[in-house]
Amino acid sequence: MSYTFYKYHGTGNDFILIEDRDRQFDTENVKMIRTWCHRRFGIGADGLILLRPDEETDFEMVYFNSDGRQSSMCGNGGRCIVAFAHRQGWIGRQATFRAIDGLHEAEVLENGEIRLRMVDVSDIELGDHYYVLDTGSPHYVTFKPLAQDGDLVAQAQAIRYDPEYRDEGINVNFVEVIEKGVIQVRTYERGVEAETYSCGTGVVAAAISTFLSGMHDEAKQFNINTKGGTLEVSFTTEEESRFTDVWLTGPAVFVYQGQITA
């Protein structure tokens, strides 16, 4: 069977997108999805996303990590599927869609960037110099100086494969505070099992953790530098450890279109 696919990236976090109007895509074919995402033997991507119709919203987002397995919410992927749905005529500039973690609102801005509302965040664990929180996907956040060419993979894997997190997996984020409202983030993603150029749910987790750390004088809007570019996160707080009205904003770029045979 032949599929038309579309390649997108959000600050270097790249995805294969498939328009699956008839829900015929074989979501159980882990080997096929993993091969398509492979950077030597396939198209190459951090994940694959299906755009599907939904009875109650504009569309449904179904996300798979590059290991071929369906996964939790992807913030950059969410922005890319909104851009894709807009390009394919499913939506105008406003949208509501369903993902594995619930409903999301989104807006296509005049400059082409996508503004995406993320889930509310609570039940945050504070450890010894780290935070654990769920921003649609589970994240471990710690603070340290970052060199752009530094290899943090071994350090991240020690956390990701710690007995406490090994079975379910966790994404690991290293954060450096640059100045008030500006941070730098590097993320190791479970399911990809590598450092990615950017992680949407990861930068949200990093911004909230930075706020909780008190290092930014209660800033609630952040510019976040990643290997693949800059994202913006904003939120409000109803109480000390509950965050609402969480928005992730940044580019979602069409790269190319192609055909692939299963």
Brief overview:
This protein is 16% helix and 44% strand. The chain is α+β, with helices and mostly antiparallel strands.
List key phrases describing it.
262 residues; alpha+beta; Diaminopimelate Epimerase, Chain A, domain 1; 2 domains; 17-stranded mixed sheet; 17 strands; globular
Notes on the protein architecture:
This protein folds into two domains: 2-118 and 251-261, Diaminopimelate Epimerase, Chain A, domain 1, CATH 3.10.310.10; 125-248, Diaminopimelate Epimerase, Chain A, domain 1 (Roll), CATH 3.10.310.10. It has helices at 30-37, 75-87, 153-160, 200-213, and strands at 2-10, 13-19, 47-52, 59-65, 94-99, 102-108, 114-117, 125-126, 130-134, 138-143, 171-179, 182-189, 194-196, 221-226, 229-239, 242-250, 253-261. The chain has a 17-stranded mixed β-sheet that branches. 16% of the residues lie in helices and 44% in strands. Strand 3 (47-52) and strand 4 (59-65) form a beta hairpin. It has 262 residues and is α+β, with helices and mostly antiparallel strands. The model has no long low-confidence stretch (mean pLDDT 94).
